[in-house]
Amino acid sequence: MLLEPEQIILIIEAAGTFAFAVSGATAAIRSRFDLFGIFVLAFVTAIGGGTIRDVMIGNLPVNWLTDTLAITSVIAGFIFTLLIYRRMKKLEGWLFTFDAAGLGLFTVMGTQIGLEAGMSVGISIALGTITGCFGGVLRDVLAGTKPLIFQEEIYAMAAVTGGIIFTLILNFFDALFVAQLTGIVVIVFIRVIAVRYKVGLPRMNVD
Amino acid sequence: MLLEPEQIILIIEAAGTFAFAVSGATAAIRSRFDLFGIFVLAFVTAIGGGTIRDVMIGNLPVNWLTDTLAITSVIAGFIFTLLIYRRMKKLEGWLFTFDAAGLGLFTVMGTQIGLEAGMSVGISIALGTITGCFGGVLRDVLAGTKPLIFQEEIYAMAAVTGGIIFTLILNFFDALFVAQLTGIVVIVFIRVIAVRYKVGLPRMNVD
Amino acid sequence: MLLEPEQIILIIEAAGTFAFAVSGATAAIRSRFDLFGIFVLAFVTAIGGGTIRDVMIGNLPVNWLTDTLAITSVIAGFIFTLLIYRRMKKLEGWLFTFDAAGLGLFTVMGTQIGLEAGMSVGISIALGTITGCFGGVLRDVLAGTKPLIFQEEIYAMAAVTGGIIFTLILNFFDALFVAQLTGIVVIVFIRVIAVRYKVGLPRMNVD
Lengths: 207, 207, 207
What we know:
The structure is a homotrimer.
Chain A: H1 5-30, H2 35-57, H3 68-84, H4 92-116, H5 121-143, H6 156-173, H7 176-196
Helix pairs in contact in A: 1-2, 1-3, 1-4, 1-5, 2-3, 2-5, 4-5, 4-6, 4-7, 5-6, 6-7
């Protein structure tokens, strides 16, 4: 028996939130935060992007305040990190896959929420990118490191590209689930290629 | 003649805002900020937590924009710090007490505002903790240091515990002022114990 | 043929947004961010102050989501910085002028928006100062440096002074455009004097 579209989206959301929480908790442990700090960083990383989006478009109270799945996924990611931190090396492949799925889903969802709020296509894609990427920015600011996303392999550009694909399909075929899934797959695919072949955005040479 | 409950709450609010402003101003002086920077850090530390809470639940315009007592207390804390900075060592006991009272009050008030906005108990306690603790997070981010609260003795856990006690009493006895005062006292008590006996949350050993 | 008041304001807004975007992009290049990071920092610097103001007073969705001129000016500033970065030394005079104009306009506009939202005069001037100055604070936090504005020559005080002049003229003469222009000119003038004569706010001596 196949899953319904809504169920597939929920599973991706749970996995993505979990992976974002793990990435926040891991960064907190590396910065030698205590238990509470680890939990907060897991939380902020997982819900930060969506919170910034909701605040900016006035979608208040922000989403996570009433989203039990998100909070449960964050707590699961937090506990998982505490249990498994020393052996995490072995799981990096899984975590990378989850993280890419989360980036894909959050970006597509953020773009969709922007369109539904009556924003222009460009602004909606920007909101999707913020949803996918700015949790990680908050994580790095709180951990006291320069935001990784501004210095890394193709991360935000994967989000932007996926957002564009999503809005194109939605516009021309009016098929929401196909657009969502294609957007997510494109983002995961770009992330895999970027990391596998170490592709990065150019930098300016500073004299 | 005894004070009314509302008056007691106002006095605690003024003392707590004052102490938070002093802690921000002190951090700014240590980071060698100029006069304006000292004022901004005093302000952000004192009103940051409540502002983040108000924004997230959509309680806009945020509280401090119309709260004369808060602004007056911040200005008093700012001026006090400038006058007394060199002799502050002697006053650390007072400032610690005020800070603990502020943490207590802000947490209890934030929890109450969350409940009044129709949030679940868990989310309301989280909002209370954010109200009490995130002004200090903003202070440390702006001062360019790692957030103290993520690395310190029991600070946020005092807030969480006080928030739980507050909601329990409110739920079972329906006595708002008793619940508020007990929540505040519990938080102050935990802070005193934690600092006196140097209790901290466990950390992960990083290899 | 003379320009209409609205046109003059739009030209100042475009120039100011452009200059703020250039300052963000430049900081990002110095922090060795990639292309996406440079764009985000240009964007955040230019729209950050107005976004914080809009969020706090509940003016949502925030302004830039529907402001094509702002977004176009940011993109122009971003591309300009990429093209001209190596020869930027020669343009510092122009960029300083644009930045001062932007500070002036954003402060005056933020103050006006505060007054229109029914805030008190003092709070409105604070909102104006936030509008003018906090994009730069976000820029420095994201770039991982201490906020320049808290350690620099008179920057925020220029904004505060201009905001006061603006509200005084508006109050006593009820002439919006005269008040706007005078406020902007005062801010630009103070910036020029401060930089020319290296005037700064006093600091506390830390033992």
